[in-house]
Every structure is written in C-alpha cells, then in structure tokens.
Amino acid sequence: MTPEPQHLTGPDDRIPAPPPGCPAHGAHGVGPGGLHRLHEAPDLGDLYEQLRDRHGPVAPVLLHDDVPMWVVLGHTENLHMVRTPSQFTRDSRIWTPLKEGMVKPDHPLMPHIAWQPICSHAEGDEHKRLRGAVTAAMATIDHRGLRRHIGRATQRLVNRFCGTGRADLVDQFAEHLPMAVMCEVLGMPEEYGDRLVQAARDMLKGTETAIASNDYIMGCLSGLAARRRARPEDDFTSHLIADPAGLNDEEVGQHLRLVLIAAYEATANLLANTIRRVLTDPGFRAQLNGGQMTVPEAVEQSLWDEPPFSTIFAYFAKQETELGGQRIRRGDGLLLGIAPGNVDPRVRPDLAADMQGNRSHLAFSGGPHECPGQDIGRAIADVGVDKLLMRLPDIRLDCHEDELRWTESIASQHLVELPVRFTPRPQQDVMAQPSHTPMPVPQPRTAWEISTVPATPAPSPEPVPDEGTAGATVSAGPSRGRTAVAAEAPARPASAPAATAPAAPTARTAGTTGTGVGIGGGTGTGPGADPGGDFVPDRPLGAWQRFLRWWRGY
Ligand code: HEM
C-alpha cells in the first residue's frame, strides 16, 4: 500500500477525508484519511470487527508513524496469502514505505521489520536451504523422549511451589516450561534457569535492557554452537551445524535464537491461555473433567480462540494483485491476521460452538513458512497442562476474573499474571508419573552398595506406566482418545510423613530407576545433585550416562 491515503484503491476504501476542524481528524486512534491506527486501538478484537464490517476481509490501517498497512481479516484470504509465494513474500526489503524512508530506524516495529538472514525472511531456494536445515534437525528429535522430558520438567516446576498452596502460573510455570524444554532440545540444559527466562522476557518486552538481554541469550547460543562445532553430540544444535546446507556461524546463531524465542514466547502464551480458560470457564473444565474433551482438544480450542501470535508482521506484495476485493499494489505490506482470521464469521458463524478435532485455525500460519515447531509447541502444552492438573486437581483462580491483566501489542496478547490457589501438596519424584496421591520424594541415600538385598527398605513405588505411551490425554497426535483429566481427590495433609520431604536432592539417585548406577555423585549432595530442578553436570557424560539421559528424558 502506498503511503498516501488517496492512493488507496478498491471498492470500500474511498474514505472521505474529514473536513478541516472536524473533531475526528487527528482524534486518538484515527489518522490521515480516517484510517485507524492499530497501535492506538483500546481493543484490537473490537477494531478488527469494525474494519471487517466496513471494508470486508482486507482492510487498510496505519501502524506507528502513520505507516500504511493492510490487515488481512478473512480466513480464506489469509490462507491464500501465505500459500501463494508467487505473489506474496516475507522479505521486507521490497516494502514501499521502507524503501521510501517512511519507516525510520527507530520505528517500534523495527525488530520485526529489519531483514535478517533467517528462514522467516527468506524465500525460494534460500528459504528451502535454511528451513530445510531447521526441519532436518527437528526430525532427529525423539518425540517419545521429548514428552518424557516435558513431563519431568513439569514435575520439577510444580515441586517448586506445590507446598505453598499458591502460585503465579505465568511467572512460575508457563514462562519456564518451554524454556526448560527448549534448552534440552537445543543441547544446553545447563543454561536453563531463571536468568535465561528473565532475559527472554526482558528482550521481548523491549525494555531499556533488552539489548543486553539479547546479548546474554546470543552469548549462551554462540557458546553452545562453538562447543558443538568442536564436539558434536546427538542434539538439535549438532544436527543443525552438520546439515549439508552448510549454515555459517551467523546463520547457526540466528536460527538457534529464532527457534528458542519463537518456541518460548508462543508456547508460554499457549500454556497460560489454556490454563486460564480451564480456570475461568466452568463449562470448559467440566468437559475436561467429564471426558468430553481431551487436553489436546482443549489446547486446540485455545489455538482457535486465543492464538499465541495474534498477527504476524508481515507479508509483502511482489506484484500488483487483488485480495479480498482490495487492489494491492506491488510493495504493499499486509499483516497476517491470525486472531481476526480465526473468528471470521464465514468459517465460524457461531463462536460459542467448540472446534474439537478441527485444526484448520491459523495459529501456526500455513504455506511455505508454516511453523515447523508446531508439534513441539503442542506437546509442551498438552503434557504440561495435563500433568499440572493431575498434580493440583483442585487448582482455582486466586483473584476475580476481571482482575486479570494482559499486555497487548499488535503481535500478541500476553497474560501478565495468573494467580492460583490449591491445597498444598507434597513434592513428587520427578521420575514418577504425576499423581494427586503422590509417591514420596525419595530420600538421598547415604551409602551405596552392590547387592540384591537393600540395606534399608526402599519405598515401594507404584507401577508407573511408560510416559511416552500412557494417557490418551497427553497425545499430541491426532489421537481421539478421551481419557479425562482426573477428578479431584482429597489432598493428603501437608505434614504427611516422608511425602513432605523438603526439596531434597532427588533425581539423580539410582534408587529411583532401579538401574543401580548413580549419576552425578550418588549421594545427592554433590555437584550433580538437583535441588531446584536445574541439572548441573559435573563432568562430560559418558555413553552409558547419555543413554540414561535419553531414557529418562533429561
Ligand atoms: C504454540 C506454539 C507456537 C506457535 C503458535 C507458533 C506459531 C508460528 C507462526 C505463526 C509462525 C510464522 C509463520 C509465517 O511466517 O507465516 C512461526 C514460524 C516459525 N516457528 Fe513457530 N510457533 C510455535 C512454536 C514453535 C516452536 C516450539 C518452534 C521450534 C521448536 C517454532 C519454530 C518456528 C520457526 C523456525 C519458524 C519460521 C519458519 C519459516 O519461516 O519457515 N515454533 N511459528
């Protein structure tokens, strides 16, 4: 779209300019030509519906500095755009307002606008080369092990707050779980921790320290890439480096960052949105508890109703064309309207009707750039929500629903806090399946022996089904299994013997697996112990230890 509003063409966009002195002219939220400024809208969802009524499925709007843009509101039109690379590209360098200097270097959207050597901005053969390396590295991920790891990371996070009876699930859960999982996937579990989560949060908020936070993250990722170039292992980063596409150091670093941040931000939003819905919508929760809806179906519904990215900035027209009745000029920019596309009345005449089993939402986009990490994002949300509810079945909101706050930008809507209460519960062994009748956290052993007769009676663990296969509720695939989230069970008193063991070093003792081999010191008090759940290896892992790590999922 060209900068001057009078250049807008099409049946519905001849908006009469307000007469001089008209109060609407320059009014908050409305710019030149009567076009709406998206960034000033008090309620973007509301504005999208007004625009749909007025302009149809593609509407002209303004961004910061009154930079013109189209927003694509129709489901079909969005799909057409992302699936037609001959007409639309993600390469911002052809965007007319950028070429004409209308977009200044300090434009707030510059982090999204500035072209980078990453697959998101590439097209054609270059896109195939970069994306091919990412998807080939993803294909090496063992999904059974991944789900097991997600389960254990969930257990560790819940162990941090389960004894208190209160938590903020955004700060203490939703923002941590994807980061813990992605650090494992990339091959840097040691780097996972509060500092990395804070750096990612800070960077995305664009605060004054955002550049330093970005540098910190890039420092972690370049260190990882250098280590793996020197000594490859069986992880995403090593496979990305070894791919025949031959990514250089800059490309490896930028794609590690893309994967880490895309996964962190989107999946944290998805987790928070799904849990909020469970806590605030009694019908939704009843369907889950009653077995009419599985957790993966609940997650899918959330992807329709509250997609983690509301819009994607942006696609650009490679030639003059027509979309949704509007004439689009070469070099025009178009926002991929995920949130408005998902509520297009032509595909969802009744927004209250559930969309169970229907995955045709736009949350992961489509076409050549369709999110390649969607199975990982879904798995984190499915397993994380399922196991959280399993551990804390009486979890409830700890404020009035109206008090919940969001930070909203054109790109996404992010829940600020999700305070909850629940009956305080003891910690659980991260190696075990979550339960609301938990097994005690194993006590650290003080001495090791090689014997078939234990010196002290070991806790008798319940038989634990394999996490990779158990429970239809945690399947990310198109499974139609309908195992309900467990109904509430009476909580065990917080002072129950043994089960209330403090955050004793746990996971890395042989007693929990029956292997008879301790990892990282055995007594649980050495550097390999896992008091807060963050694993710090004390020496390079040998083949047996790597096997065990794969088997355990972390
Ligand atoms: C619920 C979680 C997620 C959502 C909603 C989501 C959504 C998206 C969307 C909308 C895009 C843009 C597509 C376009 O340009 O048209 C995208 C791209 C991408 N996502 Fe995701 N994503 C999620 C999780 C992940 C995860 C877990 C990973 C990695 C493990 C990932 C990696 C990527 C990459 C590499 C791209 C760029 C693909 C390309 O341009 O070819 N995403 N994602």
Automatic annotation (TrEMBL):
Query: What PROSITE patterns does the record point to?
Result: CYTOCHROME_P450
Write out the ranges of the annotated region (Disordered). Answer: 1-36, 453-537
Superkingdom of source: Bacteria
Which segments show compositional bias classed as Low complexity?
A: 480-512
InterPro entries per the record?
A: Cyt_P450_B, Cyt_P450_CS, Cyt_P450_sf
* Stretches with biased composition (Gly residues): 513-531
| Family matches, as PANTHER family | CYTOCHROME P450 YJIB-RELATED (PTHR46696:SF1), P450, PUTATIVE (EUROFUNG)-RELATED (PTHR46696)
Tell me which family the UniProt entry assigns to this protein. Answer: Belongs to the cytochrome P450 family.
Q: What is this protein called?
A: Cytochrome P450
Q: Which organism is it from?
A: Streptomyces andamanensis
